[in-house]
Amino acid sequence: MADVDAGLLASTGVTRPRVAVLPTASYPDGQDVFDRWASMGVAHFAALGAEVEPVLVRDRAGADDPAAAQAVGEADLVYLSGGKPEYLRHALEGSAVGAALRAAHERGAVLAGCSAGAMILAGHAFEFRMRLVPWPLRWGAGLGFAPGISVVPHYDAWPEPFSALIALQAPRGSVVLGIDEETAVIGHDSAWQVHGPGRVTVWRGRHRERFRAGETFRI
Predict the structure, then answer these.
(1) Is residue 219 included in any domain, yes or no?
(2) Which residues constitute the domain of residue 61?
(3) For the chain, how big is the Rg over CA atoms in Å?
(4) b/e for 103-137, b at 16 or more Cβ within 10 A?
């Protein structure tokens, strides 16, 4: 995603943008995974010319740390890692870091996410139930930076009928973005553009549309 992320950094208009990498969603998968997400984020964005700070918020208590909130609040781009979307939402909701994230967004900072990070930026996010049969999916609220939208990441990693079944279970009225791997969708106001080698599948109820790199759609 180097080209995509370089474009996001350029869009800030800052010569050496500040990036805050927030690996919180990965913490339930263990300290090693958490540390790996943080180090990958630092290496990736530093190679693109940014000033990068890993914000090592592990849980809800850590999300009230003033230093963590300041790092997020001062960032030109905040990157949310993959992991567990529901865990990330509970950690950030009502916290100092969550408030700083909203303040950063309101002043025009870029918010970016991978997998769970992308899911939780939307209006709704799903989570598999930990049992033999994962249906029906449990849908909860996201952080709402993209209201009315739900994200299905890794859309092309599963057979289309399975991915479509997830999309069709989204809350009523939600527009579902099925994002292929190695692919990004960048939104500003109500316009969205696809970047990368894959596709974005947009579900509006049972109506499906496909978009490829460079194509735009509105929500």
Answers:
(1) no
(2) 1-114
(3) 17
(4) ebeeeebbbbbbbbbbbbbbbbbbbeeeeeeeeee
